[in-house]
Design goal:
The protein has about 450 residues and is an alpha/beta fold. It folds into four domains: about 1-60; about 65-170, Immunoglobulin-like (Sandwich), CATH 2.60.40; about 200-235, no CATH class; about 240-440, von Willebrand factor, type A domain (Rossmann fold, 3-Layer(aba) Sandwich), CATH 3.40.50. The chain has twelve helices and 21 strands. The strands form six sheets. Strands 18-17-14-19-20-21 form a six-stranded mixed β-sheet, sandwiched between helices. It has a five-stranded antiparallel β-sheet with strand order 1-10-9-5-6. β9 and β10 form a beta hairpin. The protein starts with a helix and ends with a helix. The relative contact order is 0.10.
């Protein structure tokens, strides 16, 4: 008991400053004797107040409790809320300082929350954390340092049991798109409707002709049966098409942007993209590849498919090897028996790097509709848009412009061989990918 008492007892800065003032008073009293009685009285008063303060803090058997509440899983790259409820069992107000043991991934050792809690009341501390890596995050104890109204001593409570939470790909972004779609406010996110060019070959039903219907869809046999009343065929958007998201896990996807790697942006975008494709009635699948490792999830439109995609994306990590497009193309050619939309999330930093993979992309484009999504280097914008004041600035701008032009040249080269390209910034990746998919659906290319 005595050992626990010493471990839980701490003294505040107010106590040490007061004690220092008394010591200085005793030193000065050596030269000014009348001050000795004043300093002695202050020392006695401080001792009595400390004893009273300790009695108030340690005199109750009911501890100051805290409970941490948060979601069972966190969303990567988003603000996740955490709440900590602290109960005051004392009959007097207390002041609480909370030292949260955050997961080591956040690299914060100075995270402190403070509040004054009235007698026998509770207080809720709320804060947000933004993880930038997928995996397990371990929260430790919430260390409470409690002081009374004297503020001389404080008691330590190791409250809130340690918790482990898993960080998954950005499902908050997924919910945001679903909610905005339900409210028909997708345009606020940048997702726009596309005008349908032509019509689908998916027959739905026959109906009477009304002004505005396409006369090319007139059904003359049905018109003859109805005694001359014009009848037209009605078509609906084709469904059950196969859409495969393919994520490159090689070292080129390790490049960071705003705390996240390009791989994390691709994973977050894939999750939203797959959900949109499932809502459109298509079958979605997933493939991730690096040098000698290829993971493949067959396409499906079942309700559990999105959960399977989420679980598969959770464990993906970048590797230091190069991506093996040849191995991937062999796998896709043997696994996919019907024409599908292949959405590649990769990154090409040079034209020569793209040309090494171009033969395999062209081979896939013979049998499938291939869309390559790669990233624009946003760091080059500041270099190319700034003013050049010295010769060195001119050289830097010229080189930066060369790299920016090479990205556009890569997109143009891919388009020559019928490969659809999307050059996007990381923050706009999801919107641009979904918009391109909706455009392809509207134009009946898939």
């Amino acid at each position: 008991m005595l050992k626990q008492f010493y471990k839980a007892l701490f003294f505040t800065s107010r106590f040490y400053l007061t004690a220092l003032a008394i010591i200085l008073g005793l030193v000065v009293a050596f030269f000014v004797p009348p001050l000795f009685f004043i300093a002695s009285f202050c020392a006695l008063a401080l001792t009595l107040l400390v004893i009273m303060d300790i009695f108030l803090l340690f005199g109750t058997r009911v501890p100051v409790a805290a409970a941490r509440r948060m979601a069972q899983r966190f969303s990567n790259g988003d603000q996740n809320s955490v709440s900590l409820t602290v109960d005051n069992p004392h009959r007097f107000p207390i002041r609480v300082k909370v030292l949260e043991e955050l997961p080591f991934q956040f690299q914060r050792r100075d995270f402190v929350l403070q509040a004054r809690i009235p007698a026998q009341k509770s207080h809720v501390f709320s804060y947000n954390v933004r993880p930038v890596e997928r995996g397990e995050y371990s929260f430790g104890h919430a260390n409470l340092l409690v002081t009374s109204f004297f503020g001389l001593a404080e008691r330590h409570y190791p409250a809130a049991t340690p918790q482990v939470v898993k960080v998954f790909p950005s499902y908050m972004q997924l919910r945001q798109y679903e909610f905005m779609g339900f409210q028909n406010k997708m345009q606020d996110l940048g997702v726009h409707r596309r005008r349908t060019i032509g019509h689908s070959m998916e027959f739905d039903h026959i109906k009477e002709y009304v002004q505005g219907d396409d006369v090319r869809t007139l059904n003359w046999k049905a018109t003859a049966r109805r005694g001359g009343t014009l009848m037209v065929n009605n078509y609906v958007e084709e469904k059950s098409q196969q859409v495969i998201c393919i994520i490159d896990k090689s070292r080129i996807m390790k490049m960071p942007f705003d705390g996240l790697t390009l791989l994390d942006y691709a994973i977050n975008s894939t999750l939203v993209f797959s959900n949109v494709a499932l809502q459109k009635g298509d079958k979605t699948g997933l493939a991730t590849f690096v040098e000698r490792q290829t993971d493949y999830l067959p396409p499906s439109n079942k309700k559990v498919q999105l959960n399977k995609i989420l679980e598969m994306l959770y464990a993906q990590e970048t590797q230091w090897q190069e991506a093996d497009f040849q191995r991937l193309s062999v796998l896709l050619r043997t696994s996919l028996t019907q024409r599908s939309l292949l959405v590649f999330f990769t990154n090409f930093e040079s034209l020569s790097g793209m040309q090494r993979q171009l033969p395999y992309l062209r081979k896939l484009a013979r049998y499938h509709l291939v869309m390559v999504i790669f990233f624009e280097n946003t760091g080059l914008r500041a270099l190319t848009s700034g003013m050049a004041h010295t010769t060195e600035d001119i050289y830097i701008q010229t080189i930066a412009q060369k790299f920016a032009d090479e990205k556009r040249l890569i997109a143009k080269e891919l388009n020559r061989y019928g490969i659809i390209t999307v050059l996007s910034t990381p923050e706009q990746l999801t919107v641009n990918a979904v918009n391109k998919y909706l455009e392809l659906k509207a134009s009946m290319q898939i």
